[in-house]
Write a structure and sequence with these properties.
Helix content: 10-25%
Largest sheet: 7 strands, antiparallel
CATH architecture of the largest domain: Sandwich
CATH class of the largest domain: Mainly Beta
Number of helices: 4
Distance between the termini: 19 Å
Order of helices and strands: HEEEHHEEEEEEEEEH
Bound molecules: calcium ion
Shape: elongated
Radius of gyration: 25 Å
Structural class: alpha+beta
Number of strands: 12
CATH superfamily of the largest domain: F-spondin domain
């Protein structure tokens, strides 16, 4: 009876860890585009409180999203993100991600009572300034307050590819093309808008990925998947309760064994 009670206490302690707000999470990306179609520069992302707004549809792109869209680097994006949200958890998944390829991030520790949202950006290559990313910082709420995953994956289709509007279409200055000079830039003077059709302008050109580009993109075609795997990290208080609980069970078992021997 006493052992049953102690076991119940230990189980309760273990269950209470499910209320912990901290999770270990890994981000996996998959390029779903057809063979010889678009590749992706590294994914830049942040788990955050929903206040960092990366860009706006119909507005001139700022330096942060331009660093993603034109260079794939996040050189201005990460500092802007960190300045807006000092407690955000920022990271990358390696690229270039060729058609059919998959890659995963390292494991991040995220306090989901603070950072429940996910914002991302990745340059579409080859291109001058094309990218995928979320306009609305509140679009992807990944965790609930207890750290449970609300969204297992984010699927992007061809219609969700953005033209940053900052650099004009120019194969000679496009990233990821053999002979292209990514450092050069012809200002476009446009605004951020959806477009994937212009990418077909690169058809027949050699990429740095070792294949001849062939867009093949049609409306609604899945091109990219971001998925999450996470586990709740028990809080120190829960661990202490669990250890006390199991210790007490062990002691009770030992007492009972002693009693059995004596009997
Ligand atoms: Ca926005
Ligand atoms: Ca452009």
């Amino acid at each position: 009876m006493k052992i049953a009670m102690l076991l119940a206490a230990a189980t309760l302690a273990a269950a209470s860890s499910a209320d912990a707000a901290t999770v270990k999470v890994k981000v996996t990306v998959e390029n779903l585009a057809p063979a010889n179609s678009i590749s992706f520069a590294p994914l830049r992302f942040g788990f955050h409180n929903g206040s960092f707004d990366s860009f706006d549809n119909g507005s001139v792109a700022g330096a942060p999203i331009i660093s993603v869209a034109e260079g794939g680097s996040g050189a201005d994006w990460f500092p802007a993100f960190a300045a807006a949200e000092p407690n955000a958890v920022l990271g990358s998944v390696a690229g270039a991600l060729l058609p059919g390829a998959t890659a995963s991030s390292m494991t991040f520790r995220v306090d989901t009572s603070v950072n429940r949202y996910f914002t991302f950006g990745s340059m579409v290559i080859p291109s001058n300034d094309y990218f995928i990313g979320n306009d609305d910082p509140l679009e992807y709420r990944i965790f609930d307050m207890a750290g449970n995953l609300l969204i297992g994956e984010i699927l992007q289709t061809s219609d969700e590819i953005w033209d940053a509007g900052s650099e004009a279409f120019d194969p000679a200055n496009a990233a990821f093309l053999v002979g292209g000079t990514n450092d050069l830039r012809t200002p476009q003077g446009g605004v951020v808008s959806f477009d994937f059709l212009e990418l077909a302008g690169f058809n027949g050109l050699e990429t740095a990925g070792g294949y001849t580009f062939d867009s093949q993109l049609t409306a609604g075609l899945p091109i990219y998947r971001i998925s999450f795997t996470s586990s709740v990290v028990p809080e120190p208080a829960s661990w202490a309760m669990m250890l006390i609980g199991f210790g007490a069970v062990g002691a009770a078992v030992r007492r009972r064994q002693r009693t059995a021997v004596l009997a």
